[in-house]
Amino acid sequence: MGTSAPRLDILAPLSGWLVPLDSVPDPVFAGKMVGDGISLDPTSGSLLAPVGGVVSNLHPAHHALTITTAEGVEVMVHVGIDTVMLKGEGFFPLIEQGQQVSAGQPVIDFDLDLVGRKAASLLTQIIITNGETVARMQPATGMVDAGKNVVLSLQLANGKDVLQAVVGEPQLSADITIGNPAGLHARPAAVFASKAKSFGSDIQLLLDGNEANAKSVVAIMGLSTKFGDKVRIRAQGDDAAAAIAELTQLLNDRCGEKADEAPLAPAAAPASAQQQDSDTQLAGVGASPGIAIGRIVHHRLQEFDVPEQGKGANVEQQAFARATEEAAAQLDLVKAQLTDPAKQAILSMHQELLQDPDLLAQTYTGLADGKSAAWSWRAAFSAYSARLEAQDNALLRERANDIRDVGRRVLALLAGVKQASLELPAGSILIAEDLAPSDTASLDPSKVMGFCTRTGGATSHVAILARSLGIPAICGISQSALKLPEGLQVILNGNEGTLAIAPTAEDLAAAEQEIARLAERRASEAKSSMQPAATSDGVRIDVVANIRNAADAREAVAKGAEGVGLLRSEFLFDNRDTAPTEQEQAAEYCAVAEALGKDRPLVVRTLDVGGDKPLSYLPLPKEDNPFLGLRGIRVSLDRPDLLRTQLRAILQAAPLTKLHIMFPMVASLEELRAAKAILAEEQAAAGVTDVKVGIMVEVPSAAVLAARFAPEVDFFSIGTNDLTQYVLAMDRGHPQLAKQADALHPAVLAMIALTCEGARAHGKWVGVCGGLASDERAAPLLVGIGVTELSASTPAVASVKATLSRWSLDECQQLAKDVLALSTATDVRHYLNQHAR
Ligand code: PEP
Ligand code: MG
């Protein structure tokens, strides 16, 4: 038999839709004063025994009964709310008190119509009235069939195991630090809520005096937790202790989120210069790259006429249950047509929202007040989406769109309006105020050439989906796009974030040519990607790759990378609770080195954490201004033990490759000297001499003083992502500043030029490993300024190499001279576009 506690399954006594008990519009049931369990919105009128046992109580009004099982568990079924007032009218008992019944046996018939009309609600509660017999309760969700599906799965307490916790005494966890880089955003919140729902206890998540229902995704997101926040869990009920233990563990495990899965700043969005509207073009933010020609098709969100007054709580409840059920089925259908698990996950989250206890509770409150289901539901989801929209976390703001999306789906069903489907003619350019993520997911890339939305940013699900579908897209387009005539032929440029609205025949021909040229070019670049990178007059430039691990290294080499210019070592060891040992680290560095071999360079950057890069095993203190706080080398010098371990591990890879060690975020010579002193000691101890040492140039002070750093380093590598942020004082993850935080800003280029000058005077080389190195248009400019190594993202390696082969060094230098004289990022982009080859 083993020692596991016995289980008891409670069958659905009626067919219908399950509803969490705390959303029942009756404080006695919702407050679990009778006991814990579940509620069901019935569609059948013959009540079946949910368990076998003795009918220990049959209410004289025949609307409720209790069955006591052989294990001593008392299961009460209470049909409807306030049905006691009917004094038995419409109820026909088929059994007597004291009678033995078996599970599934019909016990009470009732007139569904009559009871529905006369009672406040038909919601039927299935409750365990002696909770002390139960150690754990797992409620089901969704639609159930009477006598067939389980509604509650119980793990029974065996005597001494009976809950020590007294129901009514809340229990509190210790502080738990949120380790999710982007806080509890949609996905981890959904995982957490779903786990919380498996407990019968009332559970709240507490943060700084605010609390959220732990079973509600929208409530958890509304708490707006951030990486490093300290939260607590409060639980009250039979299984409170287990709930706290398991949910604490879940939070410590970051709700299953790997660090590199967490959505971070909108770095993936293409940088586009700030464009202006004119008579012939409208401008927004490039959300997904590429050029498309097509005809405008407007997608307008329908307005729903929703009556405030309901037709009775019961009728409205049933309508609501049908609508949410249908919405879930529709989402299943859309999901089944998708192959990308990331897109499916977005729709699963929408399904989770359909069962969110806070959204449901607020809706049911409206119903209990006599409002219609549509009115109550709209009020509920609008309030929650508005709450998310007011958050200072861009990711959570974007999720407001998901709530509206699923909200409108149910609303359309309640209003009996068929939502205009997104079946578009071939060659469409879609224009919408807002595109629902579920609509975007189902777009057919063979018909939709591109789309523009008024709202949304680079982190929106709409933008992410567009990039994964490979559809050029613009977000944040001006209002006037919504008024463009249907069928108008336009050119959408997702690289620039522009929509040409009055293209001439020449413009169209040029765009067509450009589309064809790009397709052809990509194909031919791929063919020559293994050639050594050089200018047309044979000057060698190293085109290498940015990587995170050995698998990336292998892929990079296969795609033509001539080495690695940046191994972001922090990614190798994220997602763990303790610092990796020297041997664990060495194994990883050696694997990368082996993938490259002895003839290719490997630049390993020491741990670069802080700012936008948290590290799970190294909780850093919360800072008001983390980008100006303990970051990069500052952390390593603060924790020399970690730095020493890492350096010893890196040095083990020296015999396998051309090893370079690079320190990140260096702002002063003292920092460089301190780090080098530690490295020298470790090198001496390990007997390794052949290692090059360099710094990242990401802080303006390092660029300005490059000539003074140069004698003390072997190389520089410019991190244009951070350098841009620090030169322009613009947060690299700020969605509204995405257009302006442009690495081609003349001030950033001037810093690059200063670095090259300083390095040249001492015969040292300069590379670029920030995002600018992946921009093929910038490649000849950087080489002209004096950069001799470009460390690009692997997919960009072939195009950067091919571009360089079209320019001689003289031409690159002339280009640099011209560009360095320009005054704005827009001018620079324009110039580079005009001179692109
Ligand atoms: C940079 O800042 O440009 C860089 C390459 O470093 P990271 O993006 O990892 O901060
Ligand atoms: Mg950086």
UniProtKB/TrEMBL annotation:
<dbReference type="GO" id="GO:0009401">
    <property type="term" value="P:phosphoenolpyruvate-dependent sugar phosphotransferase system"/>
</dbReference>
<dbReference type="InterPro" id="IPR023151">
    <property type="entry name" value="PEP_util_CS"/>
</dbReference>
<feature type="domain" description="HPr">
    <location>
        <begin position="171"/>
        <end position="258"/>
    </location>
</feature>
<dbReference type="InterPro" id="IPR011055">
    <property type="entry name" value="Dup_hybrid_motif"/>
</dbReference>
<feature type="region of interest" description="Disordered">
    <location>
        <begin position="261"/>
        <end position="284"/>
    </location>
</feature>
<dbReference type="InterPro" id="IPR035895">
    <property type="entry name" value="HPr-like_sf"/>
</dbReference>
<dbReference type="InterPro" id="IPR001020">
    <property type="entry name" value="PTS_HPr_His_P_site"/>
</dbReference>
<dbReference type="InterPro" id="IPR008731">
    <property type="entry name" value="PTS_EIN"/>
</dbReference>
<dbReference type="GO" id="GO:0046872">
    <property type="term" value="F:metal ion binding"/>
</dbReference>
<dbReference type="Pfam" id="PF00381">
    <property type="entry name" value="PTS-HPr"/>
</dbReference>
<keyword id="KW-0418">Kinase</keyword>
<dbReference type="InterPro" id="IPR001127">
    <property type="entry name" value="PTS_EIIA_1_perm"/>
</dbReference>
<dbReference type="InterPro" id="IPR036637">
    <property type="entry name" value="Phosphohistidine_dom_sf"/>
</dbReference>
<dbReference type="InterPro" id="IPR008279">
    <property type="entry name" value="PEP-util_enz_mobile_dom"/>
</dbReference>
<feature type="compositionally biased region" description="Low complexity">
    <location>
        <begin position="262"/>
        <end position="283"/>
    </location>
</feature>
<dbReference type="InterPro" id="IPR036618">
    <property type="entry name" value="PtsI_HPr-bd_sf"/>
</dbReference>
<comment type="similarity">
    <text>Belongs to the PEP-utilizing enzyme family.</text>
</comment>
<feature type="domain" description="PTS EIIA type-1">
    <location>
        <begin position="26"/>
        <end position="130"/>
    </location>
</feature>
<dbReference type="InterPro" id="IPR040442">
    <property type="entry name" value="Pyrv_kinase-like_dom_sf"/>
</dbReference>
<dbReference type="Pfam" id="PF00391">
    <property type="entry name" value="PEP-utilizers"/>
</dbReference>
<protein>
    <recommendedName>
        <fullName>phosphoenolpyruvate--protein phosphotransferase</fullName>
        <ecNumber>2.7.3.9</ecNumber>
    </recommendedName>
</protein>
<keyword id="KW-0762">Sugar transport</keyword>
<keyword id="KW-0808">Transferase</keyword>
<keyword id="KW-0479">Metal-binding</keyword>
<dbReference type="InterPro" id="IPR000121">
    <property type="entry name" value="PEP_util_C"/>
</dbReference>
<keyword id="KW-0460">Magnesium</keyword>
<dbReference type="GO" id="GO:0008965">
    <property type="term" value="F:phosphoenolpyruvate-protein phosphotransferase activity"/>
</dbReference>
<dbReference type="InterPro" id="IPR006318">
    <property type="entry name" value="PTS_EI-like"/>
</dbReference>
<keyword id="KW-0598">Phosphotransferase system</keyword>
<keyword id="KW-0813">Transport</keyword>
<keyword id="KW-0963">Cytoplasm</keyword>
<dbReference type="InterPro" id="IPR015813">
    <property type="entry name" value="Pyrv/PenolPyrv_kinase-like_dom"/>
</dbReference>
<dbReference type="Pfam" id="PF05524">
    <property type="entry name" value="PEP-utilisers_N"/>
</dbReference>
<dbReference type="Pfam" id="PF00358">
    <property type="entry name" value="PTS_EIIA_1"/>
</dbReference>
<dbReference type="InterPro" id="IPR050499">
    <property type="entry name" value="PEP-utilizing_PTS_enzyme"/>
</dbReference>
<dbReference type="Pfam" id="PF02896">
    <property type="entry name" value="PEP-utilizers_C"/>
</dbReference>
<keyword id="KW-0670">Pyruvate</keyword>
<dbReference type="InterPro" id="IPR000032">
    <property type="entry name" value="HPr-like"/>
</dbReference>
<dbReference type="GO" id="GO:0005737">
    <property type="term" value="C:cytoplasm"/>
</dbReference>
<dbReference type="GO" id="GO:0016301">
    <property type="term" value="F:kinase activity"/>
</dbReference>
